[in-house]
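Support request, please re-run this one:
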Amino acid sequence: MKIVARDIPPRAAWALEQAGVHPLLARLYAARGVRAKDELDDGLGRLLPPSGEKGLKGIDAAARLLADAMAQHKRLVIVADYDCDGATACAVGVRGLRMLGAQNVDYLVPDRVTDGYGLTPPIARRVAERGADVLITVDNGIASVEGVAEAKALGLQVLVTDHHLPGPALPAADAIVNPNQPGCTFESKSMAGVGVMFYTLLALRAELRARGVFDAATQPKLDPLLTLVALGTVADVVKLDANNRRLVAQGLKRIRMGQMPAGITALFHAAGRKAPAATTFDFGFALGPRINAAGRLADMTLGIECLLTDDAGRAAELAATLDGINRERREIEGGMREQAMLMAESLFDESEEPPPAISVFDPDFHEGVVGIVASRIKDKLHRPTFVFAASSAPGKEHELKGSGRSIPGFHLRDALDLVAKRHPGVILKFGGHAMAAGCTVAEESFDVFEQAFAQVAQEWLDAATLTRRIETDGPLAPEYCRADIVDTLHREVWGQGFAPPTFSEEVQVLSQRLVGEAKNHLSLKLMHQGNPVDAIWFGHTEQLPARVLLAFRLDVNEWKGERKVQFLVEGAEV
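Re-run finished. Output below.
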């Protein structure tokens, strides 16, 4: 492991500080590419416009389609995805369309096991059977060429809203809104599916305003939906560019003020988190996983209904159910992770480096959890990783469904594309992003896939990329080692592409011991710049030398009313 300090442009840090930004925040922001204070303005007026020269391609056509459908009282059905981004995008779509006057709005979410991902022909037929006139996809659809064709053949109008990368051919939808479609000049290519749906509603409201349905004074306010936009954006781990950070900041502000749907309130309570002090970590590690658990092990309808209900009692029931499903998910994941890690580590001797890529399969693995387990192995071994499970779908028993996670410098979807071209027929279908992707292979083709995937990694990855690097913000001045400073840091918007503050420096280890039920966490007492401080390294069991270079984040430990700073260790360079 290599601990590397980020470059902090002194001029930018100085300019931010002179503009009134806290000195520590000025340094952190400058290291993340912020050059002027106005870039930190998270007001709604600073959001990129939906339409116009640099707006989202297809959004005006989408707005006209929806406005016409509403005027004719057509039945709208949203086809969602079964993850948190898809669930929040669906809730934003249903709530927003109703706020804007749509009378007939329904939704359908595919089942991960029996339906698979996206708008498939069978899903299109189920939408038609519900009497729909217009089919709207959220967080999927850009690769659903056959599903859109089936929907069109059944007489449906189709609006695709998505953010995934398109395949070689676009579906023949009536309108497509996706910042990553060819010819789209919208600057925020990283917007999540829920953000794309929110922007579509903004354009629809403008279209309805132009038609005289309401004016600027009487138009419905869409900003209450920003709590859902913020949750889905963080949970989907998209890059937090300036526009996404504004969307998330706006959602967080409303949650901290208590302005949120009943389901969000209930999820905070079920997770034991405090909404008035809500952070991006709550979205990513508390609320998001509870909604995702429904799609992994049960039915994502539970998650969507939790986000749609305005009944506090119903929301509490659904949040408790989601919490229980998430506990079950953790139990399944724990056993799977242990088994998968043993299989991965059996691929190389203890004295050797891991292979350039890792693929594991076990007949007993649960397909709803393979992505999480792949992520855990990738984190530990720092290798692109695929974990496969046997499909539970009827008639698909000989297919394996795999989920992959990657490391910086290795584009997972492009790697799958190359494997598919080199070995036609081995991958039955695939899709995804640079850092996360999925694919289906025939069980008898697993060995071929494993070798072919490792071969691509061997060609693409060099020693530097295969060495785990932790980027940090350098040393932490002792005057900033205070609980109020930690609170200040936690209130900011951090996440993918705008990394949470991580510091690094050499410290003295005064004592260390293993804690936790399974004795799998290392509790430390350190001497940091002459001051004693507690630290914990979750999931780490190896003892540290008396002096060591640590990378750590800041947290506050509350005990009997006393709030003390503690370090959360991220890594060590020994």
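The chain is about 40% helix and 20% strand. The first strand starts at residue 2 and ends at 5.
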